[in-house]
Amino acid sequence: MGQTTVKNFRDLRVYQAARSASFEIFVLSKKFPPEEKYSLTDQIRRAARSVSANIAEGWKKRRYPASFVSKLTDADSEAGEVQSWLHSSLDCEYITQQEYEDLDETYRRIGAQLNSMIQRPHQWCDRQASRNKVRKAR
Length: 138
Description:
Elements: H1 13-29, H2 37-60, H3 65-91, H4 97-119, H5 127-137
């Protein structure tokens, strides 16, 4: 299987997975009771959307490895928050056990992909931009 060139954040599998999972949560949360509108519904949607948003932001900051890692760490933290809200949704019986397990596994995989990128930022960061920055500093 050949490697695909990543030209922008939309090409990242982790971004695609996070975006898809966010939409799944949006659809599921539509059936949450109205009294949850400004608490659980808002929180889980916000956290889910933030995962892909932080990935996109991190991609744009990849000329600075520390900033790249920081934004991916934020994305991973938001993924953990989503997992917590999913657990609350299960406890309140707003989602089924199967819906919980499927989404929890999806966010576990997203976290693993993010952590792989965090551990190897040099594989993702814009080396040419970094070199130019060092040259300009000299």
